[in-house]
Structure formats: C-alpha cells, structure tokens
Fold this sequence. Notes:
By secondary structure, the chain is mainly alpha-helical. The protein contains 20 helices and 6 strands. Helix 12 (227-241) runs antiparallel to helix 13.
Amino acid sequence: RLPLYFVVPICVSEESILKYEGRGRQFTNFYHLLNVFLQIWCWSCHNGAALLKMSAFPKEQDDSTSQMQKAFLDGIYKTISKPPYELLKTDDLSSSLPSLQDIQTAYTRFKQLFLIDNSTDFWVTDVKWFSLLESTNWLEIIRRVLKKAIEVAEYLERQHTNVLLIEETATDLCCVISSLVQVMMDSYSRTKSGFQSLIQKEWVIGGHGFLDRCNHLHKSDKEEAPVFLLLLNCVWQLVQQYPPAFEFTETYLTVLSDSLYVPIFSTFFFNSQHQKDTNTSGESLKTQSGPFRFLTVWDWSVQFDPKAQAFLNNPLYAEKPKPDKSQRKTARFKHQRQLSLPLTQTKSSTKRGFFREETDHLIKNILGKRIGKFINSSDEPPNSFREFYDSWHSKPVDYHGLLLPRIDGPEIKVWAQRYLRWIPEAQLHGGGTIATAAKILDLMEEVQSLQVKMDEQHSQAV
C-alpha cells in the first residue's frame, strides 16, 4: 500500500532493495519493513513543524525479519553523525483513539436509529431519542477524534513540534487525523479543489483500504469499518460550526459520502493505487463493446446537472484575499499552503538542491533518535490542551486561518441531512437546510445583479 513514489534513508541502496526481489516471503517482509520504518510526510505547518505518519512496529516477527529490522535500524543510526536534533512528538493512535472494531460497532448501532419502518416506530423512538443516541457512542467517537486533531494542531502551531502519528498500517486513523489537521490549519484544504487534493493525497494515493473498509465485495465483515465516513462526519462538524470558512457545503459532503458506495467510480473502490492500476489495465477490463473505463467521483457532471451542482458551492464563502504584488517577494503569509515537505530553518543551498536539503532536514529531525526514546515521548501538562483551546475560542475567528472545532457538550451534533433525509416525519415541509440554501442562493444572485448595475452606473458617471 505504499505510494508509487516515496523516500528511503540514504543508507538503503537500490541494490539492497533489488536483493529481495522475487524471493517470495522475504520480498514481502522487506517491503513490510519499509512500510513500518518509513516516516511519510503528510504536511508542513507555516513555522516548519512537520506532520508525519508511520506504521506501528510488528509485535511478532521471525528471525529473518528481525535481522532485516536490525540492519535497517543500524543503517539509520549511521546516517546521523552529530546533533542538534529537533523536537518530535509521537502519538500511537491505536492506544489514544477507539479501535476500528469499536468504531464499526458504534456506527452500526447509530445506523439502527434511522432504520424506521413506519410512523409508529418513529414516534416510539422519538420519546427516548437522546438516550438511544448517547448509547451508540458514535458522537463521543467523533468528539474524541476532533479532540485528538486539536492536540496535534497545538503541537504544530504553538509548540513548533514535529508530530509523528503511528498506527498499525498508517492508512486508517492516521488518514483521519492528518486530514482533519490540514482542514483545521490550512485554508486551502477548505476549498473544493483543496479538499479534493487532500482526499486524493491522504486516502486514495495514501493507501486507505476502501475495498475492505467499505466491504464492497461483501467478503469480510471483520475488515469493515466506516473510517472515511468518520472523517466526513468530523469535517461536517466544522462546516456547520464555521460555514463562511468553507467553499463547499454540507450537501457536498453528503453526496461525497453517497459516492463512496457507487461502484461505477474507481476513486473509492480499491485498497491502493497499485491494486487499482493492476485491475484497471490490460486485458482484464475489455468488454464486447470495447475497453471498460472507470469514472472518477470528482466529475460531478456525471451525477448532477449544473443547477444541482450549485448546491455544492457555499454562497457565503469569501475567498482568501490575494496578497499585494509588491509584498509577495518580501512577505510570507502565516497560513500559506504547504506541500508535503517540512521547511528548513536555514538558507537553502543552490548547489545541493531543494530535495537534498529537505531530506537532510528530515534526517536531522527524525532519524537521530534511538527507537526506544523515539516512541516514548514525554507527556505534556494536562492543562496544555485546555489553555490552547480556550485561548483560541476567546478570540475572533479568522476564517482563513486556524480553525478549532467546539467539542464541549451538545456542540457535537448529528449530521441530519445525511441520516434523516429518508424519514418523512423528520422533515420540514417546504423548509430545512436545502430550502434555506436555495433561498440564500437566490439572494446572492440578486445581490450580485444589483452590484453589477451599480458598477455600470458608476462607470457611466465617471
């Protein structure tokens, strides 16, 4: 499930990789070793702090794997020759967040609340709705995930500390937390194109097992878990709390969640990019009428006409002001979008090149620690999170800056549009969010039309 392109330590030569090619189990173990010990960049904060992810260390391993592990680590140690080493916070998500089984169980209970056969069942459930909702534990899981994302944002933003997320395969909860952090800290990820790029980078190319987690082939219920839906539920909390900060609407998230289970799209159908490329090329997809072509979910014209697509755009969203041309060369804006590499604190060398400089910075930051110290990072004061959280919420919101979700008490809500839309008794006749959005669109069109007329009259007067 590794991406097509990834970085290995300098000490791992191409010859050492090819050495295991075609050796069956050894070949598999070696690439499992790479998957375990590679720290993959996710995103970089404006201050240079990096967010990374890595697979967890295997609990049990045979002698050959153990020897390869030792050789790999020895090579990493030899890469480092002198200090200083930057701060690094590691977070094992398997111990700090619910397991995938717990998430699946909670979501299954949660879904049952909306499987209403008739009006009688609806009103019987309505009497004890809040107690039933609390017993599912679904909203509590959403709250815990958002809290974890805020904790990571604090390390990156306030403490200027690199954060390494660790998980069994680094393709489930690592993707959730990494994506949420970027949505909260990077205003580009709150645009339609930015959010699409984020999903492609962290989930599709990043190797999330959509085929297994969504159980598209109904082969293994044990692997099923609504991990991607968990992300969308968390993002929805942010969208409904800070509507002007997002270029897309909750309807965009709803149709995206629906597309997860539409088999004509290849975007959310495979476990990895390698599996997709293997199964969508060559003779395997030839039909009587010609080669079969999967569609991409991001082409909304396949599902909706232009009028319907208008509901995916937030009319209240204001684009980030563009910097003055005279300031572009001298000023660096706080939440400028970053790519996948952390910033260096020293001046780049034109002789060595960008990627060489960044690789050395990663080595200095990450690989200079013994694995024992690497995992067991020191705990921060328990009130650190609350101070960061309360301090941010006491200030005016910058919709193009850092966003922290409200997670106390009833602030975490049910995504009503997605889960209540098929229950007639829960609908408002002639009302609801869609009707409100339609009215806002009409008002915005009228305002824009009046603005055009005013501009025309002003130009004629001049």
